[in-house]
Amino acid sequence: MVDMAAEERNVRRTGAMALGVIAAAGAVFWFAWPPLFGLPETLAERLAFAALCAWPLFVCVTVAIMIVGLKRRTSPEDIAGSAAAPPSDRIRLDVAVLQNTLEQAVIAASAYLAVAVLAQGRVLALLPAAVLCFVIGRVFFRAWYFTRPTGRGFGMNLTMQPSLYLHALAAVLLAARLF
Q1: Which of 53, 147, 153, 179 would be 14's cystine partner, CB 3.0–4.6 Å?
Q2: How buried is residue 76: exposed, middle or buried, by Cβ count under 10 Å (0-12/13-18/19+)?
Q3: Can you give the pLDDT at residue 10?
Q4: Tell me: domain 4-178, CATH 1.20.120.550, correct?
């Protein structure tokens, strides 16, 4: 039996914790990235920057695919693939992590591209900050999902919140251009 009230408190608590980490990462990257690494200026440079920022997301997807594939190859129940039968208990959580990581990578990469098209200057330093949060968030998501599936909230928030904020920023920037 799941205590839904306790789970909701956990979602709020882990969301607030993630927000603190995201804000700290954003502040550090906002001030440290431009003098250390510079920022892209032309649209082509900004798009290349966004593509490079998206690369670690797809590395996370690749790692998740490899984990499922390696476990599937050594599991008689899973060797025939996902079309043959639902995943066994042995790989069920790994498949869930893979699916969620793929979904989060698409959401994040699209946010990076939109911000790169619409923004210039220091705001672009938020992209590598979001990447760092994504990768750390995936590590926590996977680790806590295997410990206690309802404990995955911090990792999920750390992964998802920066993407949501960047999508909101892109929407504001687009609206400012249109109106």
Answers
A1: 153
A2: exposed
A3: 87
A4: yes
Residue 140: CB atoms within 10 A of its CB come to 21
The DSSP annotation for 66-109 comes to HHHHHHHHT-TTTTT-TTTSPPPTTTHHHHHHHHHHHHHHHHHH
pTM of the entire predicted model = 0.93
> In the chain, what are the domain boundaries?
4-178
Note whether 98 and 67 are within 8 A (CB). yes
Closest CA to 130 of 98, 107, 150: 107
The Cα–Cα gap between 85 and 70 comes to 17
First-residue to last-residue Cα distance in the chain: 51
Q: Quote the percentage of the chain above a pLDDT of 90.
A: 84
Which one-letter DSSP state was computed for residue 2? Answer: -
**Which of 65, 41, 67, 158 lies closest to 108, judged by CA?**
158
What is the number of other CB atoms lying within 10 angstroms of the CB of residue 137? 28
